[in-house]
Amino acid sequence: MENFDVIVVGGGPAGLSAALSAAKAGMKTVVIERGDYPGTKNVMGGVLYTKATEAVVPDFWQSAPLERPVIEQRYGFLSGDETILAGYRDPAWAQPPYNAHTVLRVKFDRWLAQQAEKAGVMIITETVVEDLLYKGDNVVGVRTGRAEGDLGAKVVILAEGVNAFIAKKAGLAPQMRPDTVAVAVKEIIQLPQEKLEDRFCLEPGQGATIELFGDSTQGMMGTAFVYTNKDSLSIGVGALLEPLIRTKWTPNDLLEALKAKPYVKRLIQGGETKEYLAHLIPEGGYNAMPKLHRQGVLVVGDTAMLVNGLNREGSNLAMTSGKMAGEVAAQCIQSGDLSDQGMSLYEQRMRDSFVVKDLYKYRRLGRFFETHPHFLKVYPEIAANAMHLYFTADETSKKERQKQIMKMVFEKRAKGGLVSDVFGAWRAILK
Amino acid sequence: MKLDDKLYLVRFNTDTLNHIKIADAAVCLKCQDKPCTRICPAHVYDWDDEEKRISVGYEGCLECGTCRVGCPYGNILWGYPRGGFGVSWKNG
């Protein structure tokens, strides 16, 4: 049996970041990936954050296969055929130090794996890890699906993604439930660069993102998105599984309904669909986060439920957790303390970082939307009606118009409900 | 765009082994809602009315794992295909 210092299960951003930082600290490190090469099994919406990536590979933008730097973020609420929009644009984000880029994961993850290989990481592909290997209570490696496929390690880092098979077996992942995961589907729609840039008012090479709430998910908890790639759009929709089951929508019908919305239709018109993808997103937040360590094991990325749905951040949480896990693994191996207590240093560092702080801050959010479903259904409708009335120029006096708007608002949502909603939102998001 | 046309765009390295199992076909008989037939983004699961069982088109599985979480009876034993098999994204 071949022995390593560190075995990383899974070649996504979390696992590759972990491997890179372990290898840089001098550890003999291997990544075990089930796809043909890292990337071919991996899906996300498409936003990669500069700060977290730069911490793993300095100046990555000079050689990484990126799509477009994001200079504009738009947010929209859909209500029927109506759209309310807000956005922020800063052309400075087209230059270093950037803020975020759109990426396609097959290309990006492959590149990240190559950086890991350059740092000395060995990558074993087309191999599924089936379980941890134990000696007594101690984790001493992994069992893979290959004949004579046992590999030894001092530390195993679980970066196996949302389905977390191994972590679950090791008691390090909670049972996923329909109210803690969202199912997302996405299409890659090819468009000529010039047409794409015109439609999004972008200078050559610049990128934009749009997040859409409300009827983009038929009022279910979730979001839809449109991201600009070099010569394609990533368009997708994700909804919490529980309401999806209850309302009997299919994921593809949700996506088709989104594509038919007047605001979206014009953005994708004439484009050619190149790929259809699906992925689960862990939405359990802080309350669903497992214990992040045990003797000889650390958990990172989606496997640890590290997703901030509100700010659509995930890849950065994955990479930051991976980097810390790689560093802590090396530190524990060097000090010889691989006990649960010794490895708790990772959890401590995570709790001191934005990763767990942000998840903690939004810990009430999931429950809030469950108990206040109006936010995704009634409020977009109220806002759209109010805008419609406000912008309509007719013979109604402005004073009368204001009365009409207030009357409409209270018809759709009683005053008591409004107060409770505002207080609830403040508690769940701002507090 | 129809789902079948979209699935046609996906690249697979299809295994001869089925990586999905229905644990107990009798459970599906008493399941009224059969959410697996709707929630799977690739429509892998279909109710076969003649044979009175869920048919599983594992070859089209996009490996998301939704079925495993969504089956109200935990009756779908879904795992990854063997190494190197299954979906192979072109863009991701």
TrEMBL record, chain B:
<comment type="similarity">
    <text>To ferredoxins from P.putida and C.tartarivorum, ferredoxin I from A.vinelandii, ferredoxin II from D.desulfuricans.</text>
</comment>
<dbReference type="InterPro" id="IPR012206">
    <property type="entry name" value="Fd_FixX"/>
</dbReference>
<feature type="domain" description="4Fe-4S ferredoxin-type">
    <location>
        <begin position="52"/>
        <end position="81"/>
    </location>
</feature>
<keyword id="KW-0535">Nitrogen fixation</keyword>
<feature type="domain" description="4Fe-4S ferredoxin-type">
    <location>
        <begin position="18"/>
        <end position="50"/>
    </location>
</feature>
<dbReference type="InterPro" id="IPR017900">
    <property type="entry name" value="4Fe4S_Fe_S_CS"/>
</dbReference>
<dbReference type="Pfam" id="PF05187">
    <property type="entry name" value="Fer4_ETF_QO"/>
</dbReference>
<keyword id="KW-0813">Transport</keyword>
<dbReference type="GO" id="GO:0005506">
    <property type="term" value="F:iron ion binding"/>
</dbReference>
<keyword id="KW-0249">Electron transport</keyword>
<dbReference type="InterPro" id="IPR007859">
    <property type="entry name" value="ETF-QO/FixX_C"/>
</dbReference>
<protein>
    <recommendedName>
        <fullName>Ferredoxin-like protein</fullName>
    </recommendedName>
</protein>
<comment type="function">
    <text>Could be a 3Fe-4S cluster-containing protein.</text>
</comment>
<keyword id="KW-0408">Iron</keyword>
<dbReference type="InterPro" id="IPR017896">
    <property type="entry name" value="4Fe4S_Fe-S-bd"/>
</dbReference>
<keyword id="KW-0411">Iron-sulfur</keyword>
<keyword id="KW-0479">Metal-binding</keyword>
<dbReference type="GO" id="GO:0051536">
    <property type="term" value="F:iron-sulfur cluster binding"/>
</dbReference>
